[in-house]
Each structure stands twice: as C-alpha cells, then as structure tokens.
Design brief:
Number of domains: 1
Largest sheet: 7 strands, antiparallel
Shape: elongated
Number of strands: 11
Structural class: alpha+beta
Oligomer: single chain
Strand content: 35-45%
Radius of gyration: 21 Å
Length: 180
C-alpha cells in the first residue's frame, strides 16, 4: 500500500470515528387491542375526549364505521414517550435514542432530524350492548440527514419507520376504563 492510499485509509477511519451512526427501530409486540365492558357510545365519547385533550388534530372521524384517524407532525415529546424511532450514537458516547438524550449528552451530531410524521388510527367496534372492542394503530416515520446510516455515509434525507412502544395505547385504554 503506497503512502497516498494509506492516507486515504486513515482519513476514512478518522471520519467514520467522528460520525454519528443510526440503528433503525425494531417493531415489538405490544397490546393495541382490548375489549371493554362499556357501551360503544361511552367508549367513543371517552376516546374523543382523550384525543381532544391531548392536542391531536382529527383527520377522519366516522362514528358509524367506528373509525378515527389522526396525523401530526413529528413531535419530540410525543415521539420520545410513545414511539421507538431507532437510536443514534456518537463514538465513545452512550446511544442517543431520543431528542432528550441528545440534549443531555451535550453533543451536536452530524446525523440530524429533518422532521417526520405520526399516524394514529382508532377502530371502535360494538361487540354487544355492553362490550366494545378498541384497536389502536400508532406509527410514524423520522427523517434523518447526514452521518452514518447502517454503516454507510449518508448526505441526503432518508425516512425510517417509528413503531409504538405501547405507552400511548395504555393511556387511551386507561381513559376508557376510568370511572366505569
């Protein structure tokens, strides 16, 4: 190996040692469906109250079909609490799994968030006069640019899926169950 190639080799090692890398999220099994001992109308009203009091913008609401859908822009607080969007890590530092970790680490990475989208779908089904089934699908995507993604240098914007960690669903289920 000549001196010029050796210089390129060491430069690549130094640059990759400074870059932030990204590990995509892995979808885990969560409880997103539950049957409640409440009427359809009561479950529906509690879900509408819950989403309204949590700042969600309704995209579709159709009580006859039992469908509610929402979309919201990427939101650090909501994502950090309810979604797994993968993790970022800098060399010689702990993994950065969310925006709070990045702020705590005091490091500004070269792998940056460029936005994203959160999608929520609620399905409410009347089982009988006293039982209602509720199913929640929560997902999202995070847009990242720069840094190392799957070990490869990346300069453009790339979208990655985010998966629910089950926390949001538990909050909704607790709101439906409350005062029954």
């Amino acid at each position: 190996m000549n001196l010029k190639n050796l210089g390129y080799f060491f430069s690549a090692i130094v640059l990759s040692a400074c870059a932030t890398s990204y590990k995509p999220a892995v979808q885990k099994k969560i409880e997103n469906e539950r049957v409640f001992n409440v009427s359809f109308d009561k479950a529906w009203a509690k879900m509408v109250d819950f989403v309204s009091s949590n700042g969600m913008n309704i995209k579709t609401i159709d009580k006859a079909s039992g469908l509610m859908t929402f979309e919201r822009a990427y939101d650090h607080e909501f994502n950090d609490n309810n979604l797994d969007c993968g993790s970022r890590s800098s060399p010689n530092s702990a993994p950065i799994t969310n925006s709070k970790d990045e702020k705590k680490s005091g490091k500004s990475s070269d792998l940056n968030e460029a936005g994203g989208l959160i999608t929520l779908n609620f399905f409410v089904e009347k089982m009988n006069n006293k039982e209602t089934k509720v199913k929640i699908n929560l997902s999202g995507r995070i847009s990242l640019h720069g840094g190392l993604i799957n070990g490869m240098e990346h300069t453009g914007i790339k979208d990655f899926p985010c998966f629910s960690n089950g926390h949001f669903e538990e909050q909704v289920f607790a709101a439906i169950q409350q005062n029954n």
